[in-house]
Amino acid sequence: MIIKPAISVISPDRMEQGIDLYLWGSPFEEIDLRKDCSNTIAYIPLINSHDHLISNWVPRAGNNRPYKNSHIWVEDMKESFAFQERDIFWHNNGSFRLEEPNSLILAKLGAYKSLFCGCSVVQDHSSNQVDAYYEAMPIVVPKNFRQCHSLTLGNWWGGETPEKEMELTKGKMPFIVHLGEGKDEITKGEFSQLKKMGLLRANTLIIHGIALTAEEISEVANVGASLCWCPSSNFFLIGETLKIDEVLKHKANICIGTDSTMSGGVNLIAEFLKIREHFPKIPTKEIYRMATVNAATALYLPQYFAFIIPNKCRNLLLVDKVERDPYENLFALEASTIQLLLVEGIPRFGDSEWMEILNLDENMYSTFRTGNKEKFVIGDPMELNDQIDEVLGYHKDFPYLPF
Ligand SMILES: [Zn+2]
């Protein structure tokens, strides 16, 4: 099947008008159709480089903000309304075996947060889970990574020592760690600790890095390591964020994460808007680069997650053209404006019209209305929400779900 969008944003540096895109994947092979999509703009789907899927409860937790460092918040948030309400549905017994029924429901809803804003991938920072957990997700949640929660608190949520975790990466997958999430002496000392432990390498993905100095940021760039920026969460918890001007000056690889809704914004588009609010000089295409190409580099994902491949499109985000400028159009993205989200050759979400065009198996999908559009989505997130409601005894509204 061939489609022809008005504009295709092949990469942050290449935009094409009116070219053919060949959709690739099992639903398309039998379909000999050419569809004019001149009311749309095509992008590579976005990548959310940092989240905790199990923690996408609301409202945000933080009764004693701003915190000097996030380690204080990790304890303090247990007193919050959100934590205690979530506890009714899923009690964290400390095992962090997230494939169990109620934790899996929560984690899947957390992944839908990223699906409904056009993501192909969300990185779930927790201890490594069994394969069945990752396979149950509605979009790609990479299983190839190793991690440490933070050097100060260690792997309290499961996993090996940070040195052992790094060894297990064999340099072929990211080593992910919260680092410098604060403005006090403890978080300021974490970067030198990282280096001393031999953990600053090309596959290191530093989450937050608020406390990093300009010199330390240049060291990150020199070894080819990556940084993940979570502006909403940083401003909410700490009142400061990463020195982004230094990051861009030194050309360190920088991607963007939402963090969970216990501290972050509603989704990745909200992070884009937060960046624009605080740093209006950063060009929109650079923000797009952070959420696509740079993220694929940081997470060790194949190239087809980074760029549109016109003659073999297995990942694609097709969005209603409501703004003339493609990046402005992306900043205006809502679930209702996503016509089609294709990930790994499988349609995940979009206008119901596509369900008929592609002759999709109705058993794999559910439908709902948002705005004035009827939508299809892989799996059944409404049912997941219902299961939570049943346990709570009332309706729980998650603002990242569009139904
Ligand atoms: Zn985090």
Automatic annotation (TrEMBL):
A Gene Ontology molecular function term of the record: hydrolase activity
Transmembrane segments: none
InterPro entries: Amidohydro-rel, Metal_Hydrolase, MTA/SAH_deaminase
UniProt KW keywords: Hydrolase
Residue span(s) of domain Amidohydrolase-related: 177-340
Name of the protein this chain belongs to: Chlorohydrolase family protein
Source lineage: Bacteria, Pseudomonadati, Candidatus Cloacimonadota, Candidatus Cloacimonadia, Candidatus Cloacimonadales
